[in-house]
Amino acid sequence: MSWTLLGPPLVGDTSPQPFPLTTDKIAHIVLPVGLDRVGVVGLLLPGLHNELGRVTVGPWGAKLEAIDDTLSILSAQQLVSPNAAAVDPRIEKYVLQPRSETSEVILLRHNDVISFSRSATSLTCQWTASEIQVNSSAADVVVEESVDTNGVAAAPEEETEDEDLDNTVVAGSVQRLSPQPQPTPQLSNQRSVVVQETPTTARYNDLSDQTIAYNDERNLSEPIEKTPSPEFSNHGDIEPLPFSTARTGESQKKLSGVAADPRDELPLQSRPSIDVPAPIVHETSEQSPLQDHSSPRVEIPTKVSRKRSNSATEIDSGMDLALAGRSSKRTKIIVSSDDSQDSRLSSIVVEPRKTVAKGKKRLSDVPEATEAATKSQRSSQRSNTVAEEYKGPVPRVAFSHSAITGNTQAIKFLKKHKGIVVESISDDCNILCVRQGTLTKTMKLLEAIALGIPIVTDKWLLDSAKAGHLLALREHRPSVSKQEEEWNFKLDKVWGTPQAPFEGYTIHFTPELRKSYADFKEIEQVCETVGAKVATKKPSRDEKLVVLAKGDKDKELAKLMQEGFTCYTKDLLTNSILRGQVDLDSDEFMINAGAAVSTATAADNANESKTKRGRKK
């Protein structure tokens, strides 16, 4: 099958402009800069094209996604001309909003019309089914009637017993042939039916003088239409051999002057066994020699392999059983007084041979198997989505608590595709790769969120290595629903978007809190990234100040709170960056003043007791 988008005709043309869509590829619907006519391209040029939408084609169909424009889809309720969108009776349209934080797609159908808000032109989706041709089984092929090399069909009078036994021709249907030059003239309205009998048994070896005299009176130059009458075959001097299925005299080859087959002269036991279907001849009513006009009734059964017996007694008994079994199938044909050639032809009944191909499937079974295989293939293909390729600057990837370390195959793949591994976010990092499953509040993570750097899991690099090219980043965002609930934030809200919640604020860290960080310079870098200043000395009340302390055990905490400063824990900084906003009125991270005063009192009492123990009495 194939999908095509049809656009308006070009100037000077009446047919729609086709845009073929390739399977497993992304087609971009673009509006060239300075033009009002949309087009479909496979390679997007950011400086020359405005991408309105994109179409992805797979075995499951074609899906449409709006990128930078609002798309309207006119559903295909009836088949109309692609150029008749202006007068289409369908009025219900589905509006597809442009991509924002989330994206929406729709599966297209045949004859869906796509219109745009930024262009007056429209595109029509067209689906063309692929043609499937199934060759019939060789067992079901009926042998065609043999044709002469000059293109002349063989006439019934030309059929003899000397023809190839394997090429038995049975006319299953009567067809009117076009006039062709014939060696023997035929009647104008005569229907040609060819019945070819397979000679499986020997004829009578001896013929009485009376029978020979009768045959001499006949014109032997004419084609023999049937065997002699049963009246002469019952002569007392004639002893038929076993398995003689035709009540005739000598072989027609001898009567017509044709050399007989040498196998006919051999004894019965020494003749080669030929496994061919034996015809069943239904006898007609006995007549005088002058009324020898009747035709035999021939039935050709299914091929059965029958071996000859070596004993004459067994042959006689088998012949009796065969005749007894066939007696119920014989029919008598009564010839009317107005016998003619047409009436004789109409009395011939031919049953076509039924053949069964061993080890081969019937043709009727093929569509079912094919349909079942197609359904299973479609179900497996629906689960596989077409992964989008990475589109952006050269990847400069930093790793934070990642399982990918050292010179692994993933790192080699990244470098092979011009990617660069950086140590810190400040080294022009544009992708942060973290361990899959959980997030750790590292300085790299906080700084990446503050700068709007996309964060992906290790699976992005591993899947890209399997695909052979870098994949899109959005599909490999970390999934941390448990931590989102614990920290009360949404990663999708801040993913890839710069955050500056502390813009205009000054942050003061107590000495105890400064010592708790392994590298306080990284914290200063994070604060500057989110728009805050770090106070190097004791702040004044006039500033827009945020005081962060280590906790209720901080020594400076009590003094700051006695001076009227509100103090918070260090989680205020990290969680505000994750949430993209700061809330100083909430008591979630605010340190309790009562606990701080009791801690300070306990510290003073401890110092006083030490002083008393050190005095001399």
Describe the structure in your own words:
This protein has helices at 209-217, 230-233, 252-255, 312-326, 341-346, 365-382, 409-416, 443-451, 458-467, 481-487, 491-494, 511-516, 520-529, 557-562, 571-579, 593-613, and strands spanning 2-7, 17-21, 26-32, 39-41, 49-58, 61-66, 71-74, 93-96, 105-107, 113-116, 122-128, 280-282, 297-299, 396-400, 420-421, 431-434, 455-457, 506-509, 533-534, 545-548, 567-568. It contains 16 helices and 21 strands. It starts with a strand and ends with a helix. Helices cover 24% and strands 15% of the residues. The longest helix has 21 residues, at 593-613. With 617 residues, it is α/β, with parallel strands linked by helices. About 21% of the residues have low confidence. It has 4 domains: 2-128, Tumour Suppressor Smad4 (Sandwich), CATH 2.60.200.20; 190-305 and 341-354, no CATH class; 396-494, Rossmann fold (3-Layer(aba) Sandwich); 506-607, 3-Layer(aba) Sandwich (Rossmann fold), CATH 3.40.50.10190. The radius of gyration is 49 Å and the shape is elongated. Helix 7 (409-416) packs across helix 9 (458-467) and helix 8 packs parallel to helix 13. The strands form 5 sheets. A 6-stranded antiparallel sheet has the order 2-1-11-10-7-8, with no helix packed on it. Strands 4-3-5-6-9 form a 5-stranded antiparallel sheet, with no helix packed on it. It has a 4-stranded parallel sheet with strand order 15-14-16-17, with helices on both faces.
Features:
15% strand, five-stranded antiparallel sheet, alpha/beta, 617 residues, six-stranded antiparallel sheet, 24% helix, elongated, Tumour Suppressor Smad4
